[in-house]
Structures are given as C-alpha cells and as structure tokens.
Amino acid sequence: MKLIILENYSQASEWAAKYIRNRIVQFGPGPGRFFTLGLPTGLPRDHPESYHSFMWNNFFKHIDISPENVHILDGNAPDLQAECDTFEEKIKAAGGIELFVGGIGPDGHIAFNEPGSSLVSRTRVKTLAMDTILANARFFDGDLSKVPTMALTVGVGTVMDAREVMILITGAHKAFALYKAIEDGVNHMWTVSAFQQHPNTVFVCDEDATLELKVKTVKYFKGLMLVHNKLVEPLYSMKEMGAERSQSKKPYSD
Amino acid sequence: MPSNKSVSDAPIVQFTNCRILRDHQLQREDLWVREGKILNPEKLFFDEKGSADVQLDCKDSIIAPGFIDVQINGGFGVDFSLATDDFKSGIDLVSQKILSHGVTSFCPTLVTSPPSVYHQILPQISVRNGGAHGAGILGAHLEGPFISKEKKGAHPEHCLRTFEAGAFQDLLATYGSLDCVQIVTLAPEMRRSSEVIQELTKRGICVSLGHSVANLSQAEEAVQHGATFITHLFNAMLPFHHRDPGIVGLLTSDKIPAGRRVFYGMISDGIHTNPAALRIAHRAHPKGLVLVTDAIAGMGLAPGRHTLGQQVVEIDGLNTYIAGTKTLSGSVATMDTCVRHFQEATGCSVETALEAASLHPAQLLGIEHKKGTLDYDSDADFLMLNDSLYVQATYIAGEEVWRQDVSGM
What we know:
The complex is a heterodimer.
Chain A: E1 2-6, H1 9-27, E2 37-38, H2 51-58, H3 80-93, E3 99-103, E4 124-127, H4 130-136, E5 150-153, H5 156-160, E6 164-169, H6 175-182, E7 201-206, H7 215-223, H8 225-228, H9 243-247
Parallel strand pairs in A: 1-7, 2-3, 3-6, 6-7
Antiparallel strand pairs in A: 4-5
Chain B: E1 12-22, E2 25-27, E3 31-34, E4 37-38, H1 41-47, E5 54-65, E6 67-72, E7 74-75, E8 78-79, H2 87-97, E9 103-110, H3 115-121, E10 136-137, E11 140-143, H4 168-175, E12 181-186, H5 193-202, E13 206-209, H6 216-224, E14 229-230, E15 263-266, H7 275-284, E16 289-291, E17 304-308, E18 311-316, E19 319-322, H8 335-346, H9 350-356, H10 359-364, E20 382-385, E21 391-396, E22 399-403
Parallel strand pairs in B: 1-5, 6-9, 9-10, 9-11, 11-12, 12-13, 13-14, 14-15, 15-16
Antiparallel strand pairs in B: 1-2, 1-3, 3-4, 5-20, 7-8, 17-18, 18-19, 20-21, 21-22
Helix pairs in contact in B: 8-9
C-alpha cells in the first residue's frame, strides 16, 4: 500500500483529487473505453434530497459526464437483490472498476460493509449499524426515526475486484480505524483491513488520522512523500497529446 | 447529441459561465432552460438521463430575472392615456422598446381621465405573454380618478371623481370594464372606499393607496380591507409626521394583517425622492420596496413637450414637470437606470437592487411562482447584466429578444 500523509483535510483532498485526475488522464478514456470510477453507495433514493442531490451538486454538475454513464444503486427498486445483481453485471459490462474511491467509518467499514461483513461479499442489501445511522442523521434534520436502517451497498469483494483502491481518511475520530486497517491483521470486524490483500491500494490521510499509528510507520511513509508526490505532478493535458486523442476526449459529441 | 429525454423533445439550453440570482444570492450556477421555463438540471440528469443540447457561454455575466414595471404611463412618444386610433401599435412600440431597459413584463398605466377615455382604451389592452415582439403585459394600472384633490399632482382636477353615491358600481361605470385591470390606485380617505377596496380585492385586483391625504389609521383600515400597495411612496401624499406618519407609516405599521406584506413603489430616478428619503424607506421596510419608473411618453425621446393624458408635460433633462409649473409629472427614467441609482443611493447589494425590480413586483401581484425569480419551473424571463448592472441581453421564455450592440468594444 501507499500511505500518503498530508497536513490537513484540504491538502489531503487536493492530493487525492490530483491523483484521480492524473489516473484518468493516463488511462485515456474514449468512446467504448470507460474509466470506471467506483464510489461508495449512499442512502436509498427515498430521500432524493440527500444522496442524489449530494452527488449532483458536488460532482456531476461540475463535469461533463453523460447521464447514461452514471449508475447509482436504486434503493426503491421493486426487487432489491435483482437490483444488486444487475449492478454487478453493469460493473462487468463497463470493464470493471478502474479506481474505487472511498472513505472509512470510525468502525472501519468501507461503503456500508459494517463490522462482521464477509470480506468476499458482493453488492447486496445491508442492515446499517447504529453508528452509521447516527452519522446519517444529518441528512434527515437529525431525526433518527427518519433515517433508513437498510441500504444497498457494494460488497468488500466487489471493491477488491477494482484495479486500484483509494481510501481517504481524515480526522482524529478515524485514527483508530486507520490503525486497525493498516497495522493490525485482516479482520472482518474492520472491513477496510481487507485491502491489505489488494495489490494497489492508496490511503490518503491527514495528520490527525495518524494519531494511533506507530511513529515508525508514520516516519517511514512521510519519508516516501518525495516519491509519492511525483504521482500528482501535472501531466500534459490530453489536448496536447495529439489531434486524434483530443477528438475522442469525450465519449459523446455536442 | 440526441439525449434520451423521456419528458419532452424540446431543445435544452444550458447557460454557463454566469452568476445567477437565486435564493436571494448571486450563485455561480448554470441556468437550464427548456420550453420557455427554467429547468431543474438535477431532475433532468437523474430522472430523464438528459443533457443539454446547446451550451451558451455567458462570459461571467450576471443573470437576473427580468424586470417588472408596474407603473409606466408610456414612452417613446406613446401616451397610454391618449385614446388614439393606433393605440395598439403604440403599446406594442413601448413594449418592444423597454426590452432594452431589462423590462420583461409591465402594467401599462392610465392616469386620471374622463370615462370616455377608459371606455375606449381599456378594451384595447389585453393581458399577453412577452416575446420577441416585446415585454409581456400583465394588466392595466389605473391611477385615478378616485384620488384626492389636494394631492392630484399632475392629474387633471376636472376629471377627479368620488364613489360616494354608488361605491363599486360608480367605479365600474367610470372604467367600463375591469377585465384586464391589474392595479387600481385610489385615495382611501374617500367615503365608501372600504367597500370598493374589498370588491376590487375579491376580483384579484391589487389596490394601491396614493394621491391621498389619508392619515395612518385610514391607511391601515384600507390595508385591512385588502390594499397591498402604495403608489410612489412620499410623492402625492402627506409627508411623514412623527405624530401621524400618514401613508408612509404603513412601512412600519403593526396593524398589517398577519401573513400580508405592504409593498410600496419608489421612483428611484434621483428626482422624485431625495436619496436620503429613499434610504429611510428602504431601511425601514426593505422587503416591500418595488422599483417603478412612472415613465411618461417623453421617456426615450429628446427633451421638449409631450402629453400625459389631459395634460402637457415639459421635459428638461431628467426633470418632467407640468408645462409652466414645478409639479412633477411622471419621469423619463428607465428601469435599469432606476435599479442602478437605487443600488448606488442605498449602497445595498446587487441582489437586493435586482430583487426590488423583479421579485418584489412579482410578489405584489401574486405571480412569484412564475415570474420574478429564476426558480425551477418559472417562466424563463431573464436578463444578462454586467457587474455595473447594465443590461447586455434580454430573454423572454428562454428566447433572446434583445441584445446590446457590441460596437467597437
């Protein structure tokens, strides 16, 4: 794994953003060649104000993505298991997830794979832990009774199939989870620990999140920052790569 | 690319690189328009899986809802109170010309006139949508003749009337028809005004207080019976007095029925009201301020003599007086000048200045669900302005109906 330690939340976010940008540019997406970005699923669509609005306002409206290329698990689907299975099919059809970007919960969960989730699980319906319900209350004006108790989520196994995984961890309240994720063993109680067995993982965190790690670990990875920072250096833009490339820059025309 | 839109095949236009006035703030957001209405891009994206057909770069302009002028007596040589043979082409001319001032909807105003004039003119005014032909007509504003002799201003005394005898029936007989009347200005101290106000309000007509010597309690009673507007605050009414604030006192009255708001028109041309008075009114009741032009036929023309109904008016620079007197009669200000002057004089935010000419008049007329805002599903009547609030382009129902000539810049 690569452990990238930045000073604070904004720096960590910026580093992660640049990394994703570089990866997309290097991949050179085009018609029929999708860069499939995986993100943890959100709440059921019962509350369009929450997850879909969040994704629209914070991501989709700022980029020129075609709506057909956006696949969000539908919590209102009549047959939830079928919805999950279809989702897995869609991932395969798109060529698999190129890069999965997620965070972890204070209980070390990735997506909604709560403690005790199988490390080889696939996309499925999951009952949420109380911790998660409390954390989600902010989308429902703090009214706990309104927070959904079930959610559709990609499984640990689903994320493990991604060619690369990036986990963002910031804040002191996540420090223990980070410790469990990278310095302790692989354990289904801390599902993020599964990525110790993934060939390409990047953990991006801020200083506060390293509070529970060994000084030795932190010093080692900080020492590698010179090398790791090369990963986020600006690349030549795709337009400069040649006429054919720039024309195929978007998988759709105006 | 043909988008997979399940609701409609109409083209979708996305205005980018702009700051739009939404939720009382200038936000850096794109404006999406389809079929003449503001479209919700999030619903388009998730529900219809649609995307824009055309993207227009607005070069960092400000996009604001189109201005609504609820008091305009004419312009460009046209006088709405003059019954001519080609009245229709006159109103068409004005509605087309004011597009360049940023006005997308207006209420043609008739000053005090003999009944014959109303009977001739009113049937020729019809409520209609705006478009490339000109700004939309929301309905007529009848200023008089049921106003006070002492505060007639530029209105001709011999045409003033009362409705003591037959109350509402008198009013109806005078005007002939109220079919497309949106606003009536009257003096509430007149006997039986309460009945008249109630009847007008029942018919959805906005009652405005003006050209009156009413004291505060008479004004409050009028509001309780349904009046919601004050015609050109400060002008043609008793001045504010600390023991009887008169109509001006409505701005801070505690007798306004719950859930209602009193709006007040202000001609912010720098002449009708001293900037200090404008500031006092604005600070006392910022949410009620409605910018109006009260423009007359001479607006848009060279200085000289023009008519205003039964009167002759002389224009000298920005001043417009009854010929041979110092009685103000209307103005030659344009709506965008008023917006700029208002913003400068009060030092208010750009958002506040723009809302005083768009959101507030829409709220006054109860049409804010479709005009006066850039909310989703509203009519796509909007303006592109630069940072100094000069109108660069005017759009009605999503179509560009006027654009500033970019000559040599």
